[in-house]
Amino acid sequence: MRKYFGTDGIRRIANTELTPELVYKVAKAGAYVLSKHTNHTPTILIGRDTRISGTLIESAMVSGFLSYGANVKLLGVLPTPAVAYLTRKLKADASVVISASHNTFEFNGIKYFSNKGMKIPDILEEEIEEIMESNNLVEMTAKNEKIGVSEYREDLVEEYVYFFRKNFDDNIEKFNKKDFIVGIDCANGATYKVAEKIFTTLGIKHKIINNNPNGVNINASCGSTHLEAIKEFVKKNNLSLGIAFDGDGDRCLAVDEKGEEIDGDKIIAILSNYLRKKRKLNKDTIVSTVMSNLGLHKYARDNGLNYIQTKVGDRYVLEEMLKEGYNLGGEQSGHIILLDYNPTGDGILTACMLIQAILEENVKASEIAEIIKLYPQVLLGAKVDADKKYDFDKDEEINQEIQKLEKEFAGNGRVLIRASGTEPLVRVMIEGEDQEYITKKAKEMVDLIEKKLR
After folding, report:
1. What are the residue numbers of the active site?
2. What is the C-alpha to C-alpha distance for residues 426 and 10, in angstroms, rounded to an integer?
3. What are the strands of the beta sheet with 414-419, ordered from one edge?
4. Domains along the chain?
5. What distance lies between CA 207 and its chain's CA centroid?
6. What number of other Cβ atoms are within 10 A of residue 325's Cβ?
7. Mean pLDDT across the chain, nearest whole number?
């Protein structure tokens, strides 16, 4: 069991749990692990979201990297996928994103990317932890002229903007309509500047909300985890489509012109159909996690697509895609990986692909989403002690109830219960034909888990 890293890097309460001292160790150990095979002074990029603790964590990371002897380029506030893209573009040795993604402002986190712009695998995170816990950190101290230097390179955002212009400008200009207007919810997070810049560059008419971060309003009743804001905004302004990003910009969810949600499963279905028509869907295959709706499985089956499932976490989706040569995968939550463009979930990229598909098909957003029918689904979180969340299936009473539910919904739904990789929660997901009934059953299971594990 890893001590610090979860399914999406390290994520804790900033300054009390994710302390500067801990961050310094993570940086120094990470610099060693990710650059030990190089024969030159390593260069590491750092990007962050808009949390009030961002500069605190950034300062500690810079100290750790420079102390090891790595040079640092500070990118400022930038979406996670932009940092991943720039890592490859600039041929950096590694990069770090300081963000807690969709979590509230008091959390912050650390996500490492390799020189290929991909989240590092579990085995490297485990090696970083081993170094952190050893006495070797003192030995990894640069001296004299070997100490690293840092520089601010916020100008590099223009490289990311150019990436979109290069890939989408011609097509969107060709099919764009005067009355096609998109609403954008930036969650007061990392996309708050660059999203508007990209949409303006591409000539996509848009109206934008929640792009005024103050350090504590990131994800606060907005963004991809709180779609009520963009739903209301779209309907009130008679917009063609609504787009909602999360705090670090690697997720994208949408709503149609009626204010109805287009979740990650629907987006995967829409994009798979769009890409296949262009003969650009590798091996006619889509990859998702076990959390995806049963409707996505049936959509794939009915349309002659191969459907691969992985355990929860976009890194595991990517691993499967890389291993077998697939180019489309993602999660219900809106992490969509379009591997021909970027090796990580990219909210703005997903939005542009969705917009391009709608414009080329010359249909409304609600019409293009009819390609897939989702089962009613409820997902609840049981709040438990952090050190007990992985023990839920060891409790006899909980186990018996899980088995009863699985038997009851076999063939007509699905039951999935798992520990969260990023929060002190056990997540309870049930799919079935009756929304009211599955909600009742999920609440009963949550109550039982909380009773036994708190």
Report:
1. 101
2. 18
3. 377-383, 425-431, 414-419
4. 10-152 (3.40.120.10), 159-371 (3.40.120.10), 377-453 (3.30.310.50)
5. 23
6. 10
7. 94
